[in-house]
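== Protein entry: sequence and backbone fold ==
=== Local backbone shapes as whole numbers ===
==== Amino acids and backbone structure tokens ====
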Amino acid sequence: MVLLRLKVKKTATYRELVDELIEMPRIREALDLDSIPGPSTLCKAFDRLEMAVWQVLLNVSLADLSVSGVTG
């Protein structure tokens, strides 16, 4: 999640994010990254993560709604 947020905030591509991580040893240390993942690894992980986040948000929002038989 942190790397995804960093990518969005910097409006960087996956390759640019990897290049920036090479130059950010304190960030790597704070995230406990032993190695820097490749751009394709990040892309695949972010795609899976985004769907998981939407599923959690959907489940949380549905839990707060009354069950009336009408869905949107």
